[in-house]
Specification:
four-stranded mixed sheet, Gyrase A, domain 2, single chain, EC 5.6.2.2, Topo_IIA_A_a_sf, DNA topoisomerase (ATP-hydrolyzing), 46 strands, alpha+beta, Topoisomerase II, domain 5, 20 helices
Amino acid sequence: MQDSNVRPISVADEVKTSFLDYSMSVIISRALPDVRDGLKPSQRRILYAMHELSLYPPKKHMKCAKIAGDTSGNYHPHGEAVIYPTLVHMGQEWAMRETLIHPQGNFGSVEGDPPAAMRYTEARMTHLGGSLMQDMDKDTVDFVPNYDERLTEPTVFPAAFPNLLVNGGTGIAVGMATNMPPHNLVEVVSAVCAQIDNPEITLAELMTHIKGPDFPTGCTILGTSGIREYMETGHGSVRIRGKAEIVQNGNREQIVITEIPFNVNRADLEKKIAELANEKIIPEIAGIRNESDENSRLVVDLKKDARAQVVLNNLYKHTELESSFSVHMLAIDGNRPRVFGIKDAIGCYIEHRREVVIRRTKFLLGKAEVQAEKLEAFLLALGHLDDFIKIIRDSRNRDEARANLKAYTFSIPTAEHLGILIRSQPSIQGDRYVFTDKQVDDILELRLYQLTGLERDKVKAEYDEILATIKDLLEILANEIRVLTIIKDELRVISGKYGSERLTSIQAVEGEIQNIDLIPNDPAVVTMTHFGSIKRTNTREYTLQGRGGKGLRGMETRQSADEEDKSDFVEHLFSAHLHDFLLFFTNTGRMFVERVHAIPEMARTGKGRSIKNLLDLRPEEKIAAVLTLQAVGAEDEAMWAPDKYVLFATKDGTVKKTALEEFKNYRKGGIIALKIDEGNELIDVVLTDGSNEICLVTREGMCLRCSEAAGTYQALIVDSETGELKETSASSSGIRAMGRGAAGVTGIRPEEGDYVVALTVVDHSAQLLVVSERGLGKRTPFAEYRPTNRGGKGVTTMNVTEKTGKVITAMAVHDSDELMLMTSKGQSVRIKVGGEKGIRETGRNAQGVKLMNLNEGETIQDVAKVMTDTEVEGENAEDSGAVSPGAELPADEASASGAASETEASQGEPPASEDSE
């Protein structure tokens, strides 16, 4: 027979219902604070258990084990192991802006050290913790049965101060979480009073009272936009920064950190700084030590040549010395979770205190009326003392005496004559004053000494006082303004007694740290190998040598995983400042953008890191060219000048011109810079003004000079008879500007087997330097190359032989320039272009000079201009001719590239050769 109490239930429905019930239980009864007193149930029960134990100051502290045990046994049956951490948290000065519990013993530390066991620690409430329960015994809040219905507990505390705003709180419920920042008690009380005075107060007006969060660990808030956002919507993010100062210690500087951001573990911060130093992310750090006592003090020692402000900015970036505090002001309001703006939260607190004051007033009124009723009976009895004594003496027992007294009445005038307050109570029947049962019992309890004249006067005075109290209480209940005034007055008393100065300062957003502010704008040499390792090195690591030197050991190279018999070699080398932007162009025609400082810094002999950690390159891609652009302004808008163009040259002699601003909307994953057919690849990229002349140089030593602008123009050439410069008319079909997706037009037509190796902009204040792979080079005025139309084969710029080796690169150079030469074995040499030991200026037919001695099997793989020594110190940048921010440079000076090949290396000077067309 089937049980009638059993019915089928859908499992899905049951799971849904049970989960919702569990979720609401966690949300309402465990995880989220109440908007009225700012406490979670566990916190409220701990404080109430301490209230029951009378642990108010200045009483002695009591063992935390006793407090946790009473809380668990009477109100919060979830075990002492979860109660004790909550108790400890309310006593930690670095966790609570205004602690609610006064600890005694080890309550942990800001470094994450755990507290001692509860049997060793003691606690009592602070004055503010006790004020949360002030007047709780005056029927100001509701009580409900505890978990086993043996006792009762309050559903909320009267909360004499706005604890939710002052101390904030965190909590994670099911599907929601709260994270409220703490605020200054004095400011919050001022804001509450202002909102009471003006319920229509604006957020801007409230923010004149509450400046923002006030964290117990001090620190600094950056900007006010996040503060305004969370105060208005309940959501927002506030950037906070620890307090640090730079101090001089002998001939070195130190960074002393005295305040850390809220909720940051000091020991973890110390460990992170040490890791950054060990991993050379911030190599200027020499050491760190913790000198903290009751106050935080982390001392970061710096190396002798370190820039302290730069190191400090890096600490802000890489560590939690600067962090974000995400605000989500979610709390329980009327048994429902709700997100509050600051004004709504204050409004809820005001309404709660209004209810508390009204309920307290009604409670006090009831007590006063009971006392008045008793005193009325005394006064009436004392006024007719003989009659009352006779009634009591003639009665046989207490019950008869009660009945006889009950039957005794007074006329209203008689009562008024005795000063009795005539109230609308059961005591009044018609024109007679009749004793209530309570009054009769009070009369029977009268003691003989109370019949004396002095006692009568005392009763009358007490009665008059209680009448005045009743009148005042009735006025409070009838006058809303009185209620609100009481709220303000009580808050101001709390603020005056326990308020403190603001700990957290607020700075304007102008001081926000960006990447460009994190490093000095030092010069660096960037090197990249054939197999894709990249690094940057400070130019000071390269010493100046004369022409023909053996060079320093440069970048360590790796073995290819696929070609173990081939060593890696440096394929690209260029110089730039750390603030500059790098536009990386791949051989397939894509472009990436990164800052120089984003490239890992290593020593001259370092191997570098894979560029794939920096750029999202495809397997078949490699970097063909790099443009360096100076960052201008906060948004770097001026960098993308509308009157500048990017000119591309591909291996097959194709050229294309595209406006620089078309590359403005770059993406992290790269964008298409130009269309390249299969089998072709990008060789070089330069920056032009749209009317420059360019030179295209091939591997077999051919050079074509043409103009990128269409039409007839005046070109400088060398007079074949006098050898002097003269102007001549030249015509050009030009290179029209195209979009990023275009393929381009023919620039030079190389012979079969030949291909383009370099692209440079003509600069008549400079010369064209041509370098061969066997270490020979020569520089020739651009005027030696006659201008032609694009699409030709060009003229000879170097007679390529077995002794010279093929041409590897060509570029415009000045006498003041310095060059960095890198070989296939990683050797480097830095030489001057001009001077006695420099590169001799010759005609186009000259042989050239030896630039670098090479070992057997070694070849020159790349050449780039580097900054002069004066530029390294920030002087005479205009005269150096090197790549430097602020100078308007020809395009080839903003790039360096090369296509490397492996050929036999030889030394010696090649013979002169005839020009060929």
